[in-house]
Design a protein that fits this description.
- There is one protein chain.
- This protein has helices at 20-28, 47-53, 61-67, 101-110, 131-148, 178-190, 201-210, 222-229, 306-327, 329-335, 337-342, 353-359, and strands spanning 2-5, 32-36, 56-58, 70-72, 90-93, 113-116, 170-174, 193-198, 215-219, 234-237, 263-266, 287-290, 293-296, 343-346, 349-350.
- With 370 residues, the protein is of the alpha/beta class.
- An eight-stranded mixed β-sheet has the order 3-2-1-4-5-6-14-15, sandwiched between helices.
- The longest helix has 22 residues, at 306-327.
- It starts with a strand and ends in an 11-residue tail after the last helix.
- The mean pLDDT is 96.
Length: 370
């Protein structure tokens, strides 16, 4: 199969979909790989490294789209790319369709086959291609939140760790999945007082066995969230419903309960955000203020630590990419239910129920199209 790797064009997105080592493995499987010039620069991978691994360097995204049967990206295609996508072309990337009707309709109109990293799902419900970026985003949420608590950025001037004689900051994390757990690990490591909320008692029992003593596991409810918002210096929204719009757990009205200069990091912004006042921001302009509360809602947080993120992403996406390329997406989906779960759209037909429900679109059972 002819595989294309694009240079990301989302603002300050420094990741790349495949490392040179990944290209080498694709070549060993007999596939031809096209890499856009300078695609790996943001992750410290040079054109020469890709050429040495066996890739052909292309001068433009138009050339990549024209030559490739499967496109590999990190983030969703942007409007400037929509006209370049070919009918029947496989696009393998993070899509987060439920957050954008424009993107969903553009991919439907293109006739492409959209395989979304974020909905590839194992039998146990885990999301293997989302996990490493969730780990990065969870850990980074505390790093970024701590920075924007600084008075310099409009925060309330709280140091999360505290110092001898001064109490530490308080962190409220809503959602005890991969993002929330990793956020809690870092916040606890700094010495903050951490509340980690989830609505699954079994998950809370498990986390109570592995988290340190400064992490308090609490059953989530609207009343609990309202109570803890009054105390929190930093709030991390870490709620995920695979492929669907994130539920709004913090309303505009709830912001009035929060301290002036407190910070919200909404990691769920890719799926629409779990905070009513959240709107996507970029690394160029990452924060804004509503009712005295600083909001950080960067939709591609792991792009800030691109070397780590790119290597972590390739570790998990490459085996699936090779299976799709080796067998074709139809046979790969028939033989591997994890890949089948990743297919969201086939030539204008929505095959992922949560996406169809988000926009009132017709849903097609995948089996009927393979």
């Amino acid at each position: 199969m002819r595989i294309g790797v694009l240079k990301e064009i989302k603002t300050k997105e420094h990741r790349v979909a495949v490392t040179p080592e990944g290209v080498e493995q694709m070549r060993e499987h007999g596939h031809e790989v096209f890499v856009e010039i300078d695609a790996g620069n943001g992750s410290d991978f040079s054109n020469k490294e890709y050429e040495t691994a066996g890739a052909t360097i292309c001068r433009s995204p138009e050339e990549i789209y024209q030559k490739s049967e499967m496109i590999m990206k990190v983030k969703e295609p942007l409007p400037v790319e929509y006209p370049l996508i070919k009918n029947g072309q496989i696009i393998f990337t993070y899509f987060h369709f439920a957050a954008s009707i424009e993107l969903t309709k553009a991919i439907m109109d293109s006739g492409a086959v959209a395989i979304a990293y974020e909905t590839v799902e194992r039998e146990n419900g885990s999301l293997p291609l989302l996990t490493p970026m969730s780990e990065v985003a969870g850990r980074l949420s505390i790093q970024e939140g701590a920075k924007y608590l600084e008075k310099t950025y409009g925060g309330c001037g709280v140091l999360l760790s505290g110092v001898p004689g001064v109490e530490p900051g308080t962190v409220l994390i809503i959602g005890g999945g991969i993002v929330g757990t990793n956020a809690a690990k870092v916040a606890c490591g700094l010495g903050a007082k951490v509340y980690l909320l989830d609505n699954d008692p079994e998950r809370l029992r498990y986390l109570s066995d592995i988290m340190p003593k400064n992490c308090f596991l609490v059953m989530s409810s609207p009343g609990t969230i309202r109570r803890l918002l009054k105390e929190a210096d930093l709030v991390v929204g870490a709620v995920l419903i695979p492929g669907a719009v994130a539920p709004k757990l913090i309303s505009r009205e709830m912001l009035t309960l929060m301290k002036k200069g407190s910070v919200i990091v909404d990691v769920a912004i890719d799926q629409g955000g779990c905070v009513e006042t959240a709107k996507p921001t970029t690394h160029d302009n990452p924060i804004y203020e509503v009712d005295g509360v600083v909001h950080y809602c960067v939709a591609n947080m792991p792009g800030a630590v691109s070397y780590t993120s790119t290597k972590a992403l390739t570790n998990v996406t490459l085996p699936y990419a090779l299976e799709i390329a080796d067998k074709g997406y139809e046979n790969a989906a028939l033989e591997n239910p994890e890949i089948a779960k990743g297919i969201n759209i086939i030539q204008g037909k929505v095959t992922y129920k949560a996406v169809a429900e988000a926009f009132g679109l017709e849903y097609w059972a995948l089996e009927s199209l393979l």
